[in-house]
């Protein structure tokens, strides 16, 4: 019996469970560029280009390896326009009755496949280190699902940075050595860039014609689009940037978009790199004396800790997770997130780089765009939609827990034990943005006061009932309570006026 083997645009790995379970001689691989996937949110054009180009190259490689691949390009006249539609069309064409698929990374697509009138065999995605069953076992009976404890399990499971049953260097986490402020100079020239080949150019033309009006700059396009290139990008990062990754992980510079970050998340998320190979390379750099423990532990924690943990949370919490609104925030996403003018330099720089690169690093996402949306009380569904659209690495299983949970505290504290909010002081410490901003970061009220300073106290006051008994926030409330009453009134009045101007669409 012939079966169809579905390979989605973020499943471009030779060792995908559906391919491992398939028969190269009898089964047929189905890959399709479809409008439903390209349109379910209005993705950044670079993201669509990366996925289509990588899909085309992967299909070519599979054919070279002897697979019968039925590939549909977006403009093919027969293209049914959706993944289930394409599977049904191929089933009719080939007489296949069963579809093998590796579990997709989004509830929406899982439901669409399950609704199809074809027999479906859905296999676990074993490209992750923890299976969903293992995550459930870990979560069972715990009051709080904290990443740090899950991470230790993953260290034990993989053996990364272990010295017998103890953590290498005597500690599980070296973060107190990280978090250094922005440096004056960066001696890493940025992630490896690739000149588009013929396949990539054809995709860029297609994306320009069909999605050129969406938010985001398509060209220049330098992402890796196959496994070989992605591996070179990884090796480049390990050699030139990993040693300083830890120290400067949280720093931000107005004229340097990448600092010592890897920019490998898109490659990991679409399957061009595996988490194991990435961590093996990082650990080898530590064992060879090339990179220090704080850098390597910090990096490995992001991958076997955070990345695995957020996926576990997404599937553990269920399909309603992305729509949660635990703080009942209702403001519309301000226009400045789409490139509208703003005098806040940190925000304008983060948005500008997002538009150009489809990339911003973690602290820009969390403490600039995320922090501002949370302080301003923006509806988390709109924030979620924005992050899913604009970043090249955004797939719901990883984006939603980071945005809705970690950044917007809209899941009521499943992921974060307190909201990630800060005044301008944090941004000033970690970046050089404030030096050239229209606002003064040291000014707390009055003309030219940094909006983060006003909104920070306004947020804490609005949500006092929810947070004042949180031991990690008690100090903040004590500081607020010690302030002179007139001053507190001025802060709240100015915050209100600022939010009114923001909602009215004025340039703030
Ligand atoms: P590096 O800083 O070099 O880190 C190395 C790797 O660790 C990354 O490639 C990534 O695979 C992994 N990693 C690091 N932090 C996380 C994390 N919190 N969750 C999952 N993996 C992590 N990451 C995504 O892959 N897709 C998203 O859609 C996404 N949305 C985010 C939204 C918000 C609001 C926030 C705060 C974070 C989000 N992240 C997301 C996590 C993180 O910002 C990116 O993984 C990281 O910026 C990718 O860049 P990099 O490869 O240079 O990472
Ligand atoms: C993101 C994306 C896009 C833009 N286009 C396609 C596509 O045309 N065909 C495809 O198979 N996959 C695409 N993807 C990735 C899917 O949206 C992704 O598999 C789901 O969101 C689950 O993570
Ligand atoms: Fe951002 Fe405030 Fe600094 Fe301006 S002063 S860059 S608004 S934190």
**Ligand catalogue:** flavin-adenine dinucleotide, ligand DLZ, iron/sulfur cluster
Helix share, percent: 40-55%
Biggest sheet architecture:
5 strands, parallel
Report the count of strand segments: 7
The value of Rg in angstroms is 24 Å
Q: What average pLDDT do the residues reach? A: 97
| Order of H and E elements | EHEHHEHEHEHHEEHHHHHHHHHHHHHHH
Could you list the spans in which at least 5 consecutive residues all have pLDDT below 50? Answer: none
What shape does the CA trace take? globular
Strand arrangement in the largest pleated sheet:
3-2-1-4-5
Q: Helix count?
A: 22
Cα(first) to Cα(last) distance is 64 Å
Strand residue content: 5-15%
Classify the secondary structure makeup into a structural class: mainly alpha
Structural summary, described in words:
The protein is mainly alpha-helical. The protein is 49% helix and 6% strand. The strands form two sheets. A five-stranded parallel beta sheet has the order 3-2-1-4-5, sandwiched between helices. The radius of gyration is 24 Å and the shape is globular. The model has no long low-confidence stretch (mean pLDDT 97). The structure holds flavin-adenine dinucleotide (FAD), ligand DLZ and iron/sulfur cluster.
């Amino acid at each position: 019996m012939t079966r169809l083997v579905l390979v989605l645009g973020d499943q471009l790995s030779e060792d995908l469970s559906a391919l491992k379970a398939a028969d190269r001689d009898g089964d047929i691989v189905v890959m399709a560029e479809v409008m439903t996937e390209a349109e379910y949110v209005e993705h950044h054009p670079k993201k669509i280009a990366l996925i289509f180009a990588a899909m085309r190259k992967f299909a070519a490689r599979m054919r070279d390896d002897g697979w019968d691949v039925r590939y549909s390009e977006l403009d093919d006249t027969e293209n049914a326009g959706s993944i289930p539609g394409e599977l049904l069309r191929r089933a009719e064409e080939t007489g296949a009755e069963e579809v093998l698929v590796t579990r997709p990374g989004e509830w929406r697509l899982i439901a669409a496949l399950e609704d199809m009138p074809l027999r479906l065999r859905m296999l676990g995605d074993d490209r992750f280190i923890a299976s969903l069953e293992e995550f459930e076992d870990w979560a069972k009976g715990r009051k709080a699902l904290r990443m740090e404890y899950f991470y230790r399990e993953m260290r034990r499971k993989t053996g990364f940075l272990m010295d017998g049953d103890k953590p290498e260097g005597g500690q599980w986490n070296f973060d107190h050595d990280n978090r250094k402020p922005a440096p004056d100079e960066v001696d890493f020239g940025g992630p490896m860039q690739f000149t588009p080949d013929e396949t990539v150019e054809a995709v860029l033309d297609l994306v320009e014609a069909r999605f050129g009006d969406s938010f985001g700059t398509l060209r220049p396009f330098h992402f890796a689009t196959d496994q070989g290139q992605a591996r070179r990008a990884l090796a480049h990062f390990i050699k030139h940037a990993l040693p300083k990754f830890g120290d400067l992980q949280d720093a931000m510079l107005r004229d340097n978009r990448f600092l010592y970050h890897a920019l490998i998340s898109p490659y990991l998320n679409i399957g061009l790199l595996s988490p194991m190979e990435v961590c093996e390379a990082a650990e080898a750099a530590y064992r060879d004396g090339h990179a220090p423990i704080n850098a390597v532990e910090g990096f490995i924690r992001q991958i076997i800790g955070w990345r695995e943990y957020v996926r576990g949370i997404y599937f553990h919490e269920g399909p309603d997770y992305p729509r949660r609104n635990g703080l009942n925030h209702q403001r519309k996403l301000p226009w400045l997130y789409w490139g509208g003018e703003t005098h806040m330099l940190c925000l304008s720089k983060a948005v500008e780089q997002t538009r150009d690169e489809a990339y911003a690093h973690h602290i820009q996402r969390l403490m600039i765009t995320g922090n501002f949306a949370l302080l301003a009380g923006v509806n988390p569904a709109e924030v979620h939609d924005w992050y899913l659209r604009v970043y090249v690495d955004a797939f719901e299983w990883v984006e939603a827990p980071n945005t809705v949970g970690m950044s917007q505290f809209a899941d009521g504290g499943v992921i974060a034990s307190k909201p990630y909010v800060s005044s301008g002081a944090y941004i000033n410490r970690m970046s050089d943005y404030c030096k050239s901003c229209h606002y003064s970061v040291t000014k707390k009220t009055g003309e030219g006061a940094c909006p983060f300073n006003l909104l920070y106290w306004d947020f804490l006051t609005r949500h006092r009932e929810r947070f004042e008994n949180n031991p990690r926030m008690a100090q903040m409330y004590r500081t607020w309570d010690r302030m002179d009453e007139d001053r507190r009134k001025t802060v709240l009045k100015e915050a209100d006026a600022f939010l009114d101007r923001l909602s009215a669409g004025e340039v703030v």
